[in-house]
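Posted in: Structural Biology > Protein-Ligand Complexes

Title: Requesting predicted complex, phosphoenolpyruvate in pocket

I'd be grateful if someone could produce the 3D structure tokens for the following input. Sequence and ligand are given below.
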Amino acid sequence: MRTPLIAGNWKMYKTAAQAQEFVDAVRPHLDGADAADVGICPPFLALPAVVQAAGGSRIQVFAQNMYHADEGAFTGEVSPSMLLAAGAHGAVVGHSERRQHFGETDAALALKVPAALEAGLTPILCIGETQAEREHGETEDKLRHQIQEDLAEVDPDRLAQVVIAYEPIWAIGTGVVATPEQAQEAIAFVRALIAERSREQAEQVRILYGGSVNAENAPELLGLPDVDGALVGGASLKPDSFAAIVATAGG
Ligand code: PEP
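-- Reply #1 --
Done. Output follows.
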């Protein structure tokens, strides 16, 4: 059985004070059942505030990016050991906004994913196709390429320690959500790609759906057999909608 994960990607929203307010508001909603894991991915500057406000709760805190090296002359970057020391559980890597606006490459991710694992952090690796790639029938090629490149240096026995988020780029922040058939088909395909390296790990690896998930569409998406949770952007910014999605996942 795979424990679902609902992770809220706040993108570049919320100061430390606003982050604390959010956690204070959402915590009472998370005190009940715990069939789902809960993650919050705040901007770096709000990360310590979320760690502190979430203390003693089951909220896991993830950064939105990470560099692979542990220290050095890398101005503007944050290392795995710095995140660990700040109380982070993991880091989102390869989000399409980082690939699109900041030149994140598969070669960089091939270093970041194993570096996170080495440090004891859980990487949430984002992959997904553009609208044009889907229209040209290139979705599976894109996913295969990203999985092969980004996980190339991960030992097959550790693949299930990675969380994969399938996020069709055309569904991110657009209000256009993948149909249940599209989400299930793509995520089952990603699981089959992992099975090419380890059948056992493929059974265990958690693969999330991301792209305009909200409290209304979550029940259908989270009910799909291969979908192990969601990476939620816009709907994770309000405690009520985030808590409702967590509750849908059994949390
Ligand atoms: C995201 O930021 O990864 C995301 C899926 O955003 P949204 O839910 O707003 O589409």
